[in-house]
């Protein structure tokens, strides 16, 4: 039986062993081991905690314990001293799982980890199936009356609806859904969780959070970076699969869903699924009206010239992979019917910026002469996910002086200036939640399937369309088609300068 989630106030891990597959990989080094280090430093791990890395690359326990922390060792931490192991082996070799099982039993005996195991799949997606089958073959998928066995899975979860269902088949062949924790690291960000706080811990926003007040919503995930060293991976993904299918649709679901009864896992996820189900799919005929892709070309300044996507390492010089995607979505329910939602994401844009902007309708009548209103934008509420984490409310205010000029002003809430507490890294928060058994910030099987249902028709349409892929210069705000997409109804993207 799986353990019930602990009370929020306690928020420290129970006795357990964290097993990371893909232990010599990039994500483990950059995110997971630093997250374990932070959890230990912040006193969130008990003395009965152990960490096991599994990968093909040969390494000693000590080398693994040092691999992320620049010469410092996880073994120096009181909670981890003597509790870090490394198992080298092939993912499809039953011997690997036999040795892993022995290591886990030994740790239970010497560390008191109580048979609780959290298996973290941080491998390339191709290894998910052999690892899950290997775990099941060694009986490591079995929870008992007194201990848990949980599986954390990184993205990509499939590459379309059909492959996501196949993967679910493999996962559910070994683990029950309540044992499965699918990660979207955006949900580990405090500012993404703050969308819930803003909407449901306050009364003033709820009445205006619907079609009677909101003209449209823009969700932007803009990155300044290119694909860097991940060209090989990105070629098989593209912006739609890499960001829209997961991060963008998750943020959208939290921003638009109905109030849940509680933030407990099933209640919260039921509301997200209902919202995703209400998203109307573009028909083949209107995909070109509702979705735009782009690929960055060489650009920047003379001092900082940036390579085009096709020149990046690991990228096909004739690649048709999109590094930019924008679309207009409609949500067919009582709250949102008729309100357009514009979402976009891109690499090599001029600013790193993730935000949700709700733009309100213009007043029905303005008793002010038009020539006094030249600098008045529509009212807007902007949830800044990153950077400059916070919220702004934009509205019109009278300009000081003898005439009645009205200009846009804004009120700002900034995380930095308001709170002394620091935000944990997304991975730190999510690892702790998975150890505790709180699934509310993880993605349920039906959510993944709904998200693929939404993006699949657009990706398929693009794959069939052989016309040249629209381009945009590195460090510009995407292809001009994206301006036309939103401009069709007289609207404009909010492009930060
Ligand atoms: C990852 C994508 O999921 O999110 C990357 O695979 C992207 O391509 C990253 O750069 C963005 O995450 P963050 O937290 O930096 O916004």
TrEMBL record:
Keyword Plastid: no
Residue ranges of domain Glucose-6-phosphate dehydrogenase C-terminal in the record: 196-494
Residues noted as binding NADP(+) in the record, renumbered to the chain: 22-29, 56, 155
Binding site for substrate: 185, 189, 223, 242, 347
Broadest EC class assigned to this enzyme: oxidoreductase
Active-site residue numbers: 247 (proton acceptor)
Domain Glucose-6-phosphate dehydrogenase NAD-binding stretches: 19-194
EC number(s) recorded for this UniProt protein: 1.1.1.49
Keyword Zinc-finger: no
Keyword annotations: Carbohydrate metabolism, Glucose metabolism, NADP, Oxidoreductase
Pathway: Carbohydrate degradation; pentose phosphate pathway; D-ribulose 5-phosphate from D-glucose 6-phosphate (oxidative stage): step 1/3
Annotated family: Belongs to the glucose-6-phosphate dehydrogenase family.
Protein known as: Glucose-6-phosphate 1-dehydrogenase
Organism, as annotated: Actinoplanes couchii
